[in-house]
């Protein structure tokens, strides 16, 4: 790439200026004679951690400004397919500028100067992809027979999955906010996952700093618990479970779980998920099939973003994440970074979860990422727990319930009229819509928490 390069996806954003490229921490400017890296960088990092903090406590949670770097934003407006991208409906109007005189000039008006896999909305050329990989994403166009950009060897090509590359938000040109988080307000490209090797050298995932807003949560960079070598997989096409049945195993049979998460770490064992879900008999088991399917789709959509499709169990850029108080102490030498499918973070959440499971997780937070029961339990506890800002299980079945769930999980960063991480919420919504389609239920309306209704005036 001789323009703006995103190594995690092996994508070249054509026609960008150096200033635009430098404004996104995950991108690298290669316009001054740079060349394609020999291998793509390691995974982006999924998601945000969910934190909730007691409003009465003196320890205020943290600012809302860290990036979601793995499962980077996808549009909620592009067509849902079961092919792997998490996009739905029609693409949002692009704000990305056309190629400048310094960048590659279009050779084919439909390919924008790209000779590999092209996404016109973002003017992005995904290098090193095969035609089959490109064709698996409806919004991409195969330009391998024309264009001008060289492609690296196919061995470096990522494989399709449900994540997307971060892009800056724009007014007249792509430019994210002054935070280190890529926060696009334009359409994000659905893209394949990358290998789970160590994080990219140029990736940064700043930690939030204390803030008085108890709804804020951190967006972590995650690390794999084991080395993975993703290979192209078939899209989940298992038919929906029979109508009229509730309960997790009826709605999400093992075959469908494995098809949705083909690269899940071994610790994310389906049988353990089922066993832990039985501790919460109301979960996806109201007797209303649509409500219960929608709750499972919401749970999958949220943990998909948080854990990078269950391929990560810990953050890469680890930090202490301690806000010490008499009620919520920290143990010497221990760190409370995000762990598990919902990325439990901060000492106060470890303390509360430990109390629920009768373990001292302040002293042993690592158990959340190493114990096969606790890893799922942390997510289902968070989902069903009575928190200061609501109970996800109780609100997710209500009108606008998915937006309320996102607010409880990561409201400080993704909700309100102008949140720091706009596209992180888009990714959640797109995943939710995709899983609703797989489970045979309508997603409903009012899915976004990026409105004046958030934060709610009264909780």
Automatic annotation (TrEMBL):
This is Glycoside hydrolase family 19 catalytic domain-containing protein. Residues 232-243 have a biased composition (Pro residues). GO terms for biological process: cell wall macromolecule catabolic process; chitin catabolic process; defense response. Residues 35-52, 59-95, 158-201, 220-231 have a biased composition (Low complexity). Residues 202-219 have a biased composition (Polar residues). The keyword Calcium does not apply. Residues 35-105, 146-248 are annotated as: Disordered. InterPro entries: Glyco_hydro_19_cat, Lysozyme-like_dom_sf. PANTHER family: CHITINASE 12, CHITINASE-RELATED. It comes from Aphanomyces astaci (Crayfish plague agent). Residues 266-449 form the Glycoside hydrolase family 19 catalytic domain. Keywords: Disulfide bond, Plant defense. One of its GO terms (molecular function) is chitinase activity.
């Amino acid at each position: 790439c001789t323009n703006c390069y995103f190594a995690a996806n092996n994508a070249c954003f054509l026609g960008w200026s150096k200033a635009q490229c430098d404004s996104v921490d995950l991108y690298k400017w290669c316009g001054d004679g740079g060349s394609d890296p020999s291998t793509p960088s390691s995974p982006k990092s999924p998601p945000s951690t969910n934190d909730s903090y007691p409003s009465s406590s003196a320890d205020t949670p943290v600012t809302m400004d860290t990036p979601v770097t793995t499962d980077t934003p996808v549009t909620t407006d592009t067509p849902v397919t079961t092919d792997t991208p998490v996009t739905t409906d029609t693409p949002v109007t692009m704000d990305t500028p056309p190629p400048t005189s310094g960048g590659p000039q279009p050779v084919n008006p439909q390919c924008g100067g790209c000779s590999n896999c092209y996404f016109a909305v973002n003017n992005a050329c995904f290098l090193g992809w095969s035609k089959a990989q490109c064709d698996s994403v409806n919004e991409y166009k195969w330009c391998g027979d024309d264009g001008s950009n060289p492609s690296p060897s196919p061995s470096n090509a990522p494989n399709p999955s449900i994540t997307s590359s971060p892009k800056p938000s724009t007014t007249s040109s792509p430019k994210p906010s002054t935070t280190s988080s890529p926060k696009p307000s334009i359409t994000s490209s659905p893209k394949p996952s990358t290998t789970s090797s160590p994080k990219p050298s140029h990736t940064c995932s700043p930690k939030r700093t204390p803030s008085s807003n108890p709804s804020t949560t951190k967006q972590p960079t995650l690390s794999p618990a084991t080395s993975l070598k993703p290979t192209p997989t078939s899209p989940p096409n298992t038919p929906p479970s029979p109508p009229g049945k509730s309960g997790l195993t009826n709605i999400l049979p093992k075959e469908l779980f494995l098809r949705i998460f083909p690269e899940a770490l071994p610790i994310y064992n389906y049988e353990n998920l089922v066993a832990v879900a039985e501790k919460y008999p109301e979960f996806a088991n109201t007797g209303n099939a649509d409500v219960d399917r929608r709750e499972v789709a919401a749970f999958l959509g949220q943990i998909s973003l948080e854990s990078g499709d269950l391929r990560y169990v810990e953050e890469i850029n680890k930090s202490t994440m301690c806000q010490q108080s008499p009620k919520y102490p920290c143990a010497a030498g221990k760190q409370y970074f995000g762990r598990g499918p919902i990325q439990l973070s901060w000492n106060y959440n470890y303390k509360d979860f430990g109390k629920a499971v009768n373990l001292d997780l302040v002293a042993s937070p690592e158990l959340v990422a190493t114990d096969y029961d606790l890893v799922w339990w942390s997510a289902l506890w968070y989902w069903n727990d009575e928190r200061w800002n609501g109970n996800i299980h109780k609100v997710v079945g209500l009108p606008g319930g998915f937006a309320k769930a996102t607010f409880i999980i990561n409201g400080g960063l993704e909700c309100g009229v102008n949140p720091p991480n706009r596209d992180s919420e888009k990714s959640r919504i797109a995943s939710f819509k995709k899983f609703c389609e797989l489970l045979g239920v309508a997603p409903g309306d009012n899915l976004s928490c990026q409105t004046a209704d958030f934060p709610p005036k009264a909780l």
